[in-house]
Design goal:
Layout lengths: L2 H14 L3 H12 L4 H8 L5 H37 L21 H15 L3 E2 L5 E2 L1 H4 L11 H4 L10 E2 L5 H9 L4 E10 L11 E11 L4 H16 L5 E6 L4 E10 L16 E10 L1 H6 L8 E8 H9 L12 H4 L3
This protein binds adenosine-5'-[phenylalaninyl-phosphate] (FA5).
Length: about 325
Amino acid sequence: MDPELIKENAKKEISEAENLEKLNGVLKKYFGKEGELNSVLKSLLSMPPEERIRLGSQINEVKSFLRNQFDQKASELKKNLEERNGRKEKIDVSVPGKKPRVGTLHPLSRVKKRCEEIFQSMGFEVVEGPEMESEWYNFDALNIPHDHPARDLWDTFYLKNGLLLRTHTSPNQIRYMENHQPPLRIIVPGTVFRHEATDPSHEFQLIQLEGLMIDKKVSAANFKAIIEGFFKRFFNKNIKARLRPDFFPFVEPGFDVSISCVVCGGKGCSVCKKSGWIEVAGAGMVHPNVFKNAGLIPGDWQGWAFGFGIERLAMMKYKINDIRLFRSGDLRFLKQF
Ligand code: FA5
């Protein structure tokens, strides 16, 4: 058959195809194994060489022309189909949107931030110190010599480089006084580490907040007023503070600080074990040896220091009964904040 005739017929049939199925039929009819173009190609074998070349190139031209026609028609039909099926992009303004989840501050970060705000408003500067600490700053300079039993209470992780992971934020009392002349008021929030088993109220990693105030005349009464004021604002309740004698080698005298129970207000409940009080911090008047080790003359200055755990405050504030939840990574817990 004449290739030109095939071309005209196929062109007509392609343009008339109403759907992809019909177009496929046309494709098969002309391009299939037994299709018209192939049978013309087969007939070339019996032709003289010159005729074969001429007709062969004519067939090739027809083939590429028709291929184009098929492709164009196929994409036209597909587009129509998509439009009919509604698969083309459509904006349905009535569909509820996907709400992006906004992250929130970790409860410990929130509590730490709030503590900083309150102390800053009372004139305290926020200071930081290293988590990897020397024995000198963590123990010796704080009046805890090598053979002192208090070291057992603060067992920690000793590092291969001769340093250790600090067990409390108190080393920063020395670090700060070494470089700053009193009068001074600082707080030092930071992570500390202890070699101890965990339970609902103990972690081996926690955040402490250290406080230090040094001046010419600073008393325990002054400390009590500051710490009570802090807790009143932190819990937004009429909290009372209580100091009882306690021992820490770096203070003299030393106090155990309790606050009236945030749940029962001091009447006695299961949280405060019926005592009406909850222990929250260690504190005391700065020991003369600490002044000496920081390069200050003990008789020249007076001061107090305290340290409490941020986790324990967060537990009271948000009524959390297991300290281990904070670092569990459990989103069901974290999403509540
Ligand atoms: C100290 O670490 C002293 N450096 C505090 C201090 C500072 C005393 C300045 C005097 C002057 P203590 O080991 O008691 O003390 O810890 C202080 C607070 O950290 C505790 O009251 C508690 O709130 C918290 N804490 C201690 N160990 C843990 C633990 N394993 N898990 C959770 N909180 C803890």
